[in-house]
Amino acid sequence: MKNILIFILSLSFTYSFGCSCATPDTKEGIAKLISDADIVVEGTPYSIIKSNKYSGDNQKKEGVNLLFDVTSIIKGNLNNKVLAINQEIFGGCAEYYKIGNRYLLFGYEIKGFQSKKKESNNSKRPIDLPPGMGEGIDKNGIFTSFTYDKIEINYWEKLLIKYRVFTTSSCSTFEPNSDIAISVKIQQLSTKAKKH
Predict the structure, then answer these.
(1) Which of 44, 65, 71, 79 has the fewest CB atoms within 10 Å distance of its CB?
(2) d(CA 161, CA 182)
(3) Number of C-beta neighbours around residue 132 at 10 A
(4) What is the distance of C-alpha 29 from the center of its chain?
């Protein structure tokens, strides 16, 4: 009984205050991470998106929803080198980007938004663990939010006119000099060399 209680307490601590990520450490794992993502890019966040929901992000020095200036594309096609990042889907697993720092991120494209806020308020939905990468976005690229109201949906729909919007998380964002980022760059270079 004591072991069960310790296990439950450790789970509640893990999922209440942090996020647990399984970072691949094999070529196959890294290849799957790259394959599953719509884009893999390196760049710098430069501006917090001041939506209704996230207007108080740490006095403009870090945030979860922001504009991201792409300096290097590892995977994906981008005409505009500025992306909008939306991490509402990941809650406690959202990456708090520091403005001006460099990051390598794996992104999953959002092509539209819809709200099911009323449905979630009226039902006794169980508390779910954070979704996996790319989950919560249907096959048409529509992101369903259980917390956004109509005003927030309209705000993000307007951003879609100017920017491509992607979601990511702390599990798919890395410092450029981290082991995984270096492994991704080496693997992509070797893949490109084999194609030529």
Answers:
(1) 79
(2) 34
(3) 10
(4) 18
28: Cβ–Cβ under 8 A, 6 or more apart, which residues? none
Reported as a pLDDT band with limits 50, 70 and 90, residue 25 is confident
- Which amino acid would we find at residue 90? F
For position 60, what pLDDT does the model report?
65
Q: Which domains, ranges and CATH numbers included, belong to the chain? A: 24-124+131-195 (2.40.50.120)
State the maximum Cα–Cα separation within the chain, in Å, rounded to a whole number: 61
Residues in contact with 1: Cβ distance below 8 Å, sequence separation at least 6, in sequence order? none
Q: What is the DSSP string of 67-134?
A: EEEEEEEEES--SSSEEEE--GGGGGG---EETT--EEEEEEEE-EEEE-HHHHHHS-PPPPPPPPTT
